[in-house]
What we know:
The protein is an alpha+beta fold. The chain has helices at residues 2-15, 103-111, 132-142, 151-167, 172-175, 184-197, 205-212, 216-227, 231-247, 253-259, 265-276, 280-294; strands at 28-33, 37-44, 47-53, 55-60, 63-67, 71-75, 79-86, 94-100, 125-129. The strands form two sheets. It has a five-stranded antiparallel β-sheet with strand order 1-8-3-6-9. Strand 4 (55-60) and strand 5 (63-67) form a beta hairpin. Helix 1 (2-15) packs parallel to helix 3, helix 6 (184-197) crosses helix 7 and helix 7 (205-212) crosses helix 8. It is globular, with a radius of gyration of 20 Å. The mean pLDDT is 88.
Amino acid sequence: MQAMIERIRTRVARHANPGSMETIIPSVSIAVAPDDAGPEFMLRGPGVCLVIQGHKKVVIGGEALRQDPGYTFAAVTELPMTRYLIAGNRSAPYLATGLKIDPATLASLFSDLDRMPIRNVVPCFSIAEASGGILEAWDRLLELLDSPDDIRGLAAARERELLYRLLMSEHGPLLRQVVDDDGIFAQIRRVIDLMRVEFDKPKPIKMLADLAGMSVPAFNRRFRACTATSPLQYQKVLQLEAARRMLAKANDVSRTATAVGYSSPSQFSREYKRFFGVQPKRDALLMQSDRHAEG
C-alpha cells in the first residue's frame, strides 16, 4: 500500500502547479501547498479528495476531521468548511489529488450493477482509508498525465473504473445518493441549484421548503443533514463566496456588497470578516497581489 502511495506521490509531484489545481484531465485536480495554509473558509465539493503527502484538517458543521496520506474524503454537495493544509517541509509539501464526480457517469455505472440499497439520509460527507483497488485505479487515471495523447481515448474508462471502486467502498452509501432522483439528496440539490443561481436574492425558507416538497421543519432538518449547515447560513455562504470572487478582480467593496444582495456595506464587511478572517478591502488587495505575482 505504501509503495502505491509513493508511486502516486511521485507522479502527482511531477505535475503539481502551485498556481492552479487544474490538470489536462478535466475531472482531475492536483493541490500543492509548500507551507502550512489556513484556516481558510471555503465551499468544498462535490467530489473525492485523496491526500498523498502532508495532511489536511477540516471543520464541517462543528465536527473536526483529519485526513492523512492514503485517506479519501468524499462529498456530494457543496459543503461549507474551514480547511487547514499541513505540509511537512519545503522538500515535502502538502500534496493531494481530487476527482470531480460526474453524476451521469455514476448513474450509468450504477445501472449496470446489481441492485444496491440507497439509504436516506446518510451523513453529507465521508472519510475512509483508500483500498489497494482505489489507489491502483487512481494511479491508472493519473498515469494519463504523462501521455496526453491517450486522454481522449482512455480517460473515461479509467474514471469509470475509479468511480466503481469508490462506489464499492465505504463511500458507497454516500455516492449512491447521487443517482437517486427521488431521494432527499435530489430534493435538496434542486434547492441548492436555485440558491446558487440566484445567490443575490435570498429566498424565504417557506419558498425553499415548498420547492423541496417538504414542511419547513422537515426541510430545515434535512437540509442540515445534507450540507452540515442551515439554509439561511448556506445562502449567506453563497453570497460571500461570490463576493470574494468579485473582489479578486476589482477592489470595490460597496459595489460588491450591492451586487451580492447586501443593502448595508458595513454589515457586509462584518460578515465577510467573520467568514474569511480578513476585511474585504484587505482581502481584495491580497488576492490581486497574489494574482499579479503568479502572472
